[in-house]
Design a protein that fits this description.
Radius of gyration of chain A: 14 Å
Helix content of chain B: over 70%
Strand content of chain A: under 5%
Largest sheet of chain B: none
Number of helices of chain A: 2
Distance between the termini of chain A: 31 Å
Mean pLDDT of chain A: 95
Number of domains of chain B: 1
Strand content of chain B: under 5%
Mean pLDDT of chain B: 87
Order of helices and strands of chain B: HHHHHHH
Oligomer: heterodimer
Number of strands of chain A: 0
Low-confidence stretches of chain A: none
Number of helices of chain B: 7
Structural class of chain B: mainly alpha
Largest sheet of chain A: none
Shape of chain A: elongated
Largest interface: A-B, 16 and 25 residues
Low-confidence stretches of chain B: none
Shape of chain B: elongated
Radius of gyration of chain B: 20 Å
Helix content of chain A: over 70%
Structural class of chain A: mainly alpha
Chain lengths: 58, 147
């Protein structure tokens, strides 16, 4: 099975965010909000890191 | 005036911390839930009738572990070599039953010629680490620290 780097990062972010949301918050709505926030930060972090590496390379 | 307010805040914080760190009685569930949750991802929540949470945790951990294996990631055996290899083993061990089955079936030898195999290795390690977080959460629920 071969995934692109970005797809692998997205899948990773999705499942890790679910676990973080459930385990780090008490209320259901808070869990969903925190999970969504984690997912956004994971994805934005991935994109930022990608651009940072591109800048370093050039 | 300001000093009195500071004192009140300090007292309030102290009472809150005291309430938080109050020792909880250890119950059988507080031992069984994390142990079962480690062995079968999500089972620690399911046994406490947190059906939705348990199933989502199970789905997340199992999917990450299986995807890691399908990407030809490495499943670390016990070792005393490089520190990263030792930490890899500790992470993998967190996946509980899935780690035991993978080792027994000799799955996860790791393909060093594939770039995505390294992702697979990380997926497997993180699945184990997430499972440990889930097991600790199941322990907290059993102790009544969390709903």
């Amino acid at each position: 099975m071969t995934l692109s780097h970005f797809t692998a990062a997205l899948i990773f972010s999705f499942f890790a965010s679910i676990v973080f949301g459930i385990t780090q918050r008490d209320e259901q709505l808070e869990m969903i909000k925190y999970g969504a926030k984690c997912f956004v930060f994971f994805v934005l972090g991935t994109i930022a890191a990608g651009w940072a590496m591109w800048i370093l390379r050039h | 005036m300001a000093r009195a307010e500071k004192t009140n805040v300090a007292e309030s914080t102290a009472s809150k911390s005291a309430a938080r760190v109050q020792p909880q009685p250890i119950t059988a569930m507080a031992v069984i839930a994390p142990a079962l949750g480690w062995l079968v991802p999500g089972a620690g929540h399911l046994i406490q009738k947190r059906w939705g949470r348990g199933l989502l945790l199970m789905l997340s951990v199992v999917t990450m572990f299986v995807l890691g294996v399908l990407m030809q990631g490495k499943v670390y055996a016990f070792n005393t070599g490089d520190i990263l290899d030792i930490l890899g083993f500790v992470g993998d061990l967190g996946a509980g039953g899935f780690y035991i089955v993978a080792r027994a079936l000799d799955i996860g030898r790791g393909a060093i010629d594939l770039a995505t195999a390294d992702y697979g290795t990380k997926y497997i390690i993180v699945a184990g680490l997430l499972n440990i977080i889930s097991a600790v959460d199941a322990h907290d629920i059993a102790l009544g620290k969390k709903k």
